[in-house]
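Hi W., the coenzyme A complex you wanted:
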Amino acid sequence: MDARIRPARRSDKAPLMSFIKDVWGGHDYIPTVWDRWIRDTKNRMYVVVVDGVPVGMNRMRLMEDGSAWFEGVRVHPEYRSRGLASMLGENSMRVAKGLGITTFRLTSGSRNHTAHRQIARIEFRETARFSVYEPPRVSRGAGDARRVGLGETADAYAAIRGSAEYRLGGGVFWHDFAAASLTPEVVDLLVCEGAVWRLGRAAAVVRDGGREPEAWKQICFLGGDPGDAVRLAKGLTAGWEKATERWIFLPQGSPIIRQLRLAGFRRNYSNILFERRAAKG
Ligand SMILES: CC(C)(COP(=O)(O)OP(=O)(O)OC[C@H]1O[C@@H](n2cnc3c(N)ncnc32)[C@H](O)[C@@H]1OP(=O)(O)O)[C@@H](O)C(=O)NCCC(=O)NCCS
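Structure:
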């Protein structure tokens, strides 16, 4: 078998979508993002070509914390279990290392055991498990959530860093289905863009994206005192009725979860965060 990896091209769409359209019973998201991904010059997308035919793909996103995020790995059913997904992963790590990146992350649904075996094969380790919660359709806010101002960055960072959720979740926040570390520099950036909120002894990071009818809003990080955190979540999500996806990411084991459930928030799905670190230099 002659398998080679090269950057993705526009002409790869048809051969790849011919099998991706059937992944997960036709519910794969790749067909809806492919055109955006192929136009994106900041991040990288690769295909694996066997005997001249594209039979697999993956994508690498360069994250704001200096890590690389691997996603969208798909291999044609007839070409699985031959190491092609692992080849794509190894290739991305090689490219990332060439850019000076030493932290690689990816996520997988908690039940995708086939993917977990392949992920273990390229030596990624589980960092944390997350559950994604949805607010009740009509949510009434407490109204006392406060956006963190520029002079309050150090205090907000301390609240995030000191929370059980920071520890349980491996210190990351989620954005557009990818995770990055909440380093002091990243928290600085988030405060500058107005994405960090406080209420009492709780802190949250909020982001939105997409366009109607696919608009999404996310509490990408929520941590601190459980009572304050739930009031903060209620305040932030009131008025989110129009968004298609309204998600709150919480690491499993967080004491906030119980109180969030009592407030009517419901779990949508669970995922696992995997990580691999390479030696520097
Ligand atoms: C998950 C997925 C990408 C794995 O692709 P793959 O090319 O089959 O993965 P790999 O071959 O690299 O590794 C997986 C298996 O092949 C085996 N393998 C790897 N290299 C091999 C080789 N050279 N010879 C024989 N077997 C090999 C691995 O041990 C593993 O075996 P197992 O699952 O039987 O225990 C593929 O199943 C897929 O596209 N699934 C649908 C989409 C999906 O779930 N994507 C992942 C989302 S996180």
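The two ends are 33 Å apart (CA to CA).

W.
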